[in-house]
Amino acid sequence: MGFSRRLLFRVALGCGVLVSAVGSFLGFRTTAPVHAQSPVPPGPGRRLVSPLDAIEVRAQEAGSGDATLVRTLVDDALNASIFAGSAGSIRERVFRAEMAFRSGKGQAISEPALVGAINSVASIAFEPEAFKTSDEQVHALRIMLNATIPHFIGTSDAMSPAEAVFLTGFLTQQKLYNSGLRLDPQEVAAWRASRPAEQTFVDRIGHSAVLTARAMPREMVDVESALREQLPHEWSLVTICVHLFLDRAGLPR
Asked: 241 is in which domain, residue-wise?
């Protein structure tokens, strides 16, 4: 299996998705999303729409700056990450920060600032060192995701609030299912440069697919359970920790 397919398969598995016989993937969520509407199921002859494909469409639509469209983008982005079950206060805060950013009243978030926020809260809230990240890993993930959602994920050292929060939730979700996840910036950049522009996120892999079961370490199971059970509740410790992360990432209260 080549690098691109191996890397993409790892990301798909990390998101908790099922690779279908035709090579598309459907997002799996441990909690029901709120606000955003799911894409219309495809009819005959139409391919399934992945969560990342849907985000790209939402991002293009939100380019107008319309508040309703921006809110839909924020909700779809959160729903495609570990923050799918987020309490309303988290969603509202990310939405307000995104609107301020788009209107020129809010600041962009740099990669080092995001890494610092992730690592500081990981030290406080979670035991596993695997949740910590680096500038190189964050940048490599952005290069990879930019191939599929270029209107939402950029490659410069500046992120919108919604991009930064989505990236955090997406990366955390990968690490829950693969605590040893490593993303080498040079390898990812080489893959991105060689990737055909029309290629979809998940490579076409014929008429069969094999999923490899991976046992989650006990500490990761505990974190996943806490996120699933506490994230929907406004005054849970997990929600408070998420707000602390947003504070340190620079999102206004």
From this structure: 3-15+48-197+212-249
Q: pLDDT band at 174, cuts 50/70/90?
A: confident
Using a 10 angstrom Cβ sphere, with 0-12 exposed, 13-18 middle and 19 or more buried, the burial of residue 225 is exposed
CA nearest neighbour of 167 among 69, 81, 232: 81
The beta strands (E) that lie in 41-115 are given as none
Single-letter residue type at 171: L
**How many alpha carbons lie under 13 Å from residue 37 in its C-beta half-sphere?**
7
Number of domains making up the chain = 1
The larger pLDDT score, comparing residue 107 to residue 194, is at 107
Query: What is the per-residue burial (b if ≥16 Cβ within 10 Å, else e) of 105-133?
Result: ebebbbbebbbebbbebbeebbebebbbb
* Alpha-carbon span 9 to 13, nearest angstrom: 6
Question: What is the Cα 241 distance to its own chain's centre?
Answer: 18
Phi-psi region of 144 (alpha: psi -120 to 50; beta: other; left: phi over 0): alpha
